[in-house]
Amino acid sequence: MHETTKVGTKWKKMSTIVLPILITQVALYLMSFFDVLMSGKYSTQDLAGVSIGSSIWLPVYTGLSGILTSITPIVAQFVGAKREKEASATVKQGFYGAILLAIIIFTGLTLSLKPLLKGMSLEPDVYRVAYHYLIAMCFGLLPLFIYSVLRCFIDALGQTRVSMLITLMATPINIVFNYLFIFGHLGFPELGGVGSGVASAITYWLICGAAIIITMKKTPFVGFSLFSKLPRPNPTKAFEILKLGLPIGLAIFAESSIFSVVTMMMSKYSTEVIGAHQIAMNFARVCFINAFVFYSYRIMLLGRHNDGLFLFYSL
């Protein structure tokens, strides 16, 4: 932790932390971007199917994972107060929350997908791709949410470059697996747009594994012993995370669903129109979300909590 008194120093500290976060957000959205882009190289129907699927996936994932972002300020406050054991306990309770959210989304999506997609009057091929793309993505829910918890923990310690590097690995890995599963190269099955969902799910498992290894082996994370002596679920801790995280999750869901609702409304048009619209919206989504993230972290970095430090640095 660093004490700062001058405005210029505050902005410098903020930029050091926020810039990697912005890059991380871009990297996360690039996965969906390349899913759509590379599916479009396969066929127009696959492009439209993946577009519809990603429009359903993104607001659900970002909204619910936004609940877990409350771990960042909670852990940062405990670390600033030299209460590392409580910080570690919060992260461990976050793991339980991640598992619960993964189960809820997996169950909810698998039960609601067919009626939701049938209500869009999609072409049969577009419906098939969208449905199986989302089912494939669901198998990456658990590692994705666990990674979100670890990312919040890493960011809370001010090590945003670490989470940036982990997430940056995801884009080239995802591109490689897209190439293999969409087009069926090197003996892999040719799945078309559905292959991009398989590729993303595999990528989520890999970056989750990388985050686990880093937090187990590297300083300053290793001292928190996140993966030893997991406690029982604590309703009080869970409520604390939910109380702070639910408004964050709802706000992110509202922001990200703006683009998704428009795409779903376009589903009544032709496959070509859906695909063209999604390509344009991908660029708009990245710009909008990163502007939102920058503003949010600026407010958090300049804010104060009752006990002093609200997020990363004492201001």
UniProtKB/TrEMBL annotation:
Transmembrane segments: 16-38, 58-81, 93-111, 131-150, 162-182, 202-227, 248-267, 279-297
InterPro entries: MATE_fam, MATE_MdtK
UniProt keyword RNA-binding, yes or no: no
Keywords from the UniProt entry: Membrane, Transmembrane, Transmembrane helix, Transport
Function: Multidrug efflux pump.
UniProt similarity note: Belongs to the multi antimicrobial extrusion (MATE) (TC 2.A.66.1) family.
NCBIfam families: matE (TIGR00797)
Protein name (database record): Probable multidrug resistance protein NorM
Organism: Rummeliibacillus stabekisii
